[in-house]
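User: For a benchmark we're assembling, each entry needs the component sequences followed by a predicted structure for the full assembly. Here are entry 17's components. Please fill in the structure.
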Amino acid sequence: MDTTDGPLVPPQHRRVVLGFKDAEDLEAPDLPTESLPLNMGPSHPAMHGTVRMVLEVEGEKISSADIQIGYLHRCFEKESESATWTQVFPYTDRLNYISPMLNNVGYALAVEKLMGIADDIPERALFIRVIVGEVSRIADHLTCLGAGAMELGAFTVFLYALKAREWLFELLEEVCGARLTSTYLRIGGVHFDLPPEFGPKLLDILARTRIVMSDIGKLLERNRIFRDRMDGIGIITKEDALAYGITGPVGRSTGLAYDVRKDHPYLVYDRFDFDVPVGSVGDNFDRYAVRVEEVNQSMRILEQALATIPAGPFMINNPRVALPPKSETYNSIEAMIAHFKIIMDGIHVPPGEVYSYTEAGNGELGFYIVSDGSGRPWKCRVRPPCLPAVAVLTKVLPGLFIADVVPTFGMMNMIGGECDR
Amino acid sequence: MGFEFHTSSLKAAVNWARKFSLFQYPFVTACCGMEFMSVAAPKYDIARFGAEFPRFSPRQADLLIIVGTITERQGPALRRIYEQMCEPKWVVAFGVCASTGGFYQNYSTMPGADQVVPVDVYIPGCPPRPEQVLDGLILLQERIQRGEGHSQIAIEAEKGYDVPLAAIRPLGSTHRKEEP
Amino acid sequence: MAQIVLDRLGARFTGGEILESGSEHGDEWARIRRDAWIPVAMFLRDDPSTKMEMFIDLTCVDRFGKEPRFDVVLHVYSVSLKHRVRLYCGAPEEDPWVDTLVSVWAGTNWFEREAYDLYGVRFKGHPDLRRILMYPEFVGHPLRKDYPKEKRQPLVRRQAGAPD
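Assistant: Structure for entry 17:
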């Protein structure tokens, strides 16, 4: 193309304004086009099956985006209003279904805060919660990175990430009996103790996962296709992150250094030494890089936690909250009655309202709980961490190309169960 | 008499070929998708069963795997995807939500995907373990071999499909012998 | 922890805009009169001693049998000062509306749509008040306490006796 007569494409229509050096050769002149509605989803391979985007496109460029969620609305709140406090745990598993342990932690802490028993939880239980939570976080980030890369055609990365995730799932299966939907935590502690040989196995898996992460980095970070589709695409500013309430890796990629684990330490996070990675641009590559670094930081936390975990009980010593041991349940009528009351009536939580927040895989996972003093929640609201990140897409997508939707959406890590509840 | 024998044996050969070349369309909505990824990933490797390659267009697929909760809002989309697939087609409900709704019995979730599309094989579990999924796939393959898929039966009922096939294909004896 | 926020609110709004305030389980809360909802939010965001620049959550509670029946609940947080506060704004059953906060925190947009969808509280001045989680054909507001849990409104079903 002869460009001696001045640029054919006005500079504002060039991708080069987004940080590309050599995009002018690739781009056709700005032809006059009509605006065209384009429907993506709900069953689109990159839309995770649960979101529909109605894009208004001019040529390849998006002029407006209407994002419709709700395809996986499973009524978490309505279901939990008719369940006992303990029965809500299985529903929390299925919010962010890649890291169910982190949701369990968030809900357990909220109920314990409302009951005022947060200080009585045995220390070993706190450590176990940190450990299983961080293992879940690694699995969450691995899935996001692998799936995000697969949507850009890097299938090998997906297989590598899934290989590592499989080790973590098998380890969690040893802990709680389920690969994915764990329901491992209870109000007042955890259901089982860690299995024998848990520590050495986890350290071995972490060592192998480090190799996988380094392989993934080698495959992606200097890959031209990957970088071209990630660098400078889908920029979120820090002001937007604040106004929309975006937290977690997406929020941190904008430079907003807010991590609940660091700013408001819960459990025993204040005893560990770890860093909070932040991005500088807020584009897709920053979101990728923040997640990679968070995996490394989670591994650091895990190593410190395994080195310092104390022995002792893993369930609160409070007969109104904890189930009696099975040996007593089967052999004494008092324990049998206590067991029956806790299972059938549920744990009694005093009336009140509480908002408790933890750092889940996608950001601040808040539980706003209203109790009326009966055995069931009056309201159990989840503050979904990925809903703001999806909401901001209506602002981010206009101006991008259709092909940019896939990496941008992938790096938001929208999880249907959590976004739609 | 001979015609009868040849027809049924060709049908067996066709079904044998069908059952080992399933092109799946994963309709992934929810948690089960994570286990579906595991089934496709190296350790469990669905490729060993001839159902390797997910087609992300329903027009190129003959096996619809419904992975995860189907809500009332999702129903029309699912129905439309099913109608776009070419026959004969098979449907697997992956997980208890797709089978019956599971423990989500409320105003938004559908009590099983079979409210909207016919289902051949139900795989229970919340989510099912990968081994269970592979077991369900083998079960489906057995049904395909016996010609018991819902759309195979529907085609049989319409008549006429097997006779032209028997006419155009030479009747060899190279295919695997059928178990009783 | 965030008592300073309540003190500032009490000092700035003296005309009865703050109906009630308190602290519960370490969470500070204040109940705002409906007509002061936007000014209070603006003040919290901009005042240098509160600096609530981050929107966290907006939802609604159905206090069935009490007056006002609906409470819109807002959580906001200050990243720089590390404190947060919960605000309530009541909306009576016969005419449930609250002013929209989209002009204060842009992120409230989808959360207000959700509260409208599930509870039927209208947000005055909202730019795009549509259903978000349920489909447009849905009738009623399902998270109200008087909506039966299993009352489905199907869009599509297989017909009985259909060949497939």
